[in-house]
Each structure stands twice: as C-alpha cells, then as structure tokens.
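Support case: zinc ion complex. Customer-provided input:
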Amino acid sequence: MRTKRQNGDKKARYPWRFRRYFNPIFKGQALKRDGFYLLLPLGRRRPAIRVHLPQNLPMGRLVQAELGFGEIHLTITRERDEPGVPASGNAGGLDIGSIWLGMVTDGHEALAIAGRGLRSVKQGRAKALARLQKKRSRTQPGSRRRKRLHRARHRLSQKVNQISRNALHHATNQIVEFCVTHQLAVLYTGDLGTLNHKTRRRRSRRTNQTVGVLEFGRLEQYLQYKLRRYNIQLIRISEAYTSQTCPCCGHLNKVGGRTYRCRACGYRAHRDGVGAVNILNKGIHGEIRPGTMLVAQRITYRRPVPFHGTLRRRCG
Ligand SMILES: [Zn+2]
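Agent response - structure generated as follows:
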C-alpha cells in the first residue's frame, strides 16, 4: 500500500475496519482509590482490579482511568493556582439567536457567528434518521439488513454530534477571542437555560425547532469554562424585551425579518445586533436605557467552521 502511494497511486487505501473492542474507561464513581492502589470495579460478582499506583504520580484529582492491554492511562486534572488577572475592564453583551449562533458586542464593535450551516446539518439529520428508521421497520427482526441499518443510524447520529460539538467549540473560541482582545471583564448573556422550557408555548413550532437543535446548554457550558481561563465573568440576565426594545428611543417593536425597524423613530439595525447591545445595556444599567448604546457600526461576520455539506449526500 505504501509503495503504491509512493508510485503515485492516489486511490490506494490503507486496510481498515471498524473497531469492535474498546478499552474500558472507568470514571466518576467507578474510580476508587485505596492508598496507593486504584480500584477498578468489575460488577458485583467479581472482585475489583487493583492497580498499584506509582509514587511519583502528578498532583491533582484522578478523574479517569482507561484500561488498555498491559497498560493503563490515567487522566489527572489540576485547577490552576493563580487566579489570573483581577477582573477589571469592559463589559460585553452576548445574544444567542437562531440566524446567528451568537452575536457578541462591547458597544463599539460586534462579532456575529453564523449558525446556519450547523442548523441545516441538524435538520438534515432529523430527516435522514427518520428515513433510516422507516427502512429498518420494514426489515425482518434479527436480519443482517436490520443490523446494518441500525449501525448506519448510530454512525450518522454520532457524526452529526461530532460536527455540532466541533462547531460549538470553534464558535465559543471565537467569542472568547473577541472578549480577550476587547479586554472584557464581564460578559452578559440572556437566560438561555429557561428559554427552552418556559417560553416554549409562546414560540411557534418552527422557532421551537431551531431553538431546540442549537444546544444552548452545551454552548453556555463551553463558554463558561473557556472564559474562566481568562477570568472573564459570564453573567446571565433576563432576556425579556431585549430583542424588541429600540436601543435608540425605547419603543417596543415587533420583530419580523432579519432587520430591526423602529416604528417610532425609524432606527434600523441588524436584529441580533439589537439583542446583543440591549443585553449589554441591561447588564450595565439593570434596565435598558434608551439612547445610551446603539448597535455597533462595525460588525464582523464569521462562520464557526468551514462547512462543506457533504453529510447529507453521504448518509441520505
Ligand atoms: Zn426607536
């Protein structure tokens, strides 16, 4: 195979197959220490495996052990000792939306991260999974065909999970980068956690779907721990009226399309830009004070990751 490649055969592939066996991983409650021994439980009937730990084990908390063949991999975490730079600096506002995965602003500049690519992948998945499920239901129980379809379904959902996790990591990295370069000490964000449950009824089915697929919980979780590295505080505030209030005159407008138009004063701006600046305004003043902050003049648009949309074709 290697010689073939060297001789210019670009189509030659290394032999491969799916892994059927994986190293068992012990973490959380499955991980117990007994002095210099590590106990890996094997269920009720069998005694736990005892592994002698080396004396020169690094300091920190043992969080995971992966049992390999004749070897064991330990994961040890340690909190950073230094508290970082004391929190002083500017404040920022972050709005998480459906058109834009996130829009962050410091009042002067803004960064918008596109969420469309991700959304279409996830919606595509829902449809493709349904198709596979339908095909599977027409097969005989225990048949090879059924097993294959089952595996295909599993593979597809894992694939999308990986894409979405990757995109969320890239997006949060970009948000954090913005916060660091603009020297933010505090980042205000809407109360996303409650958004999924409480306001569900008031949203249309379509909005619910777009809200549901974007995994705000995960996004916030990533953001939280990444911001902590730079000692930037993430503060949740109530999102109420932040998307409707006119930043210029305070009039409440119904928001239809992607641009925000004020009926009272004629102010026009990007919809999610309005949300972000109002969240910032509310965070600083405790309420939205009209006329103090307008939507940033300079908005940078970015996508979380270059996305080529090959997934649907391959798995559909
Ligand atoms: Zn207005």
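The chain has two domains: 15-77, 90-119+165-302.

Case will auto-close in a few days if no follow-up is received.
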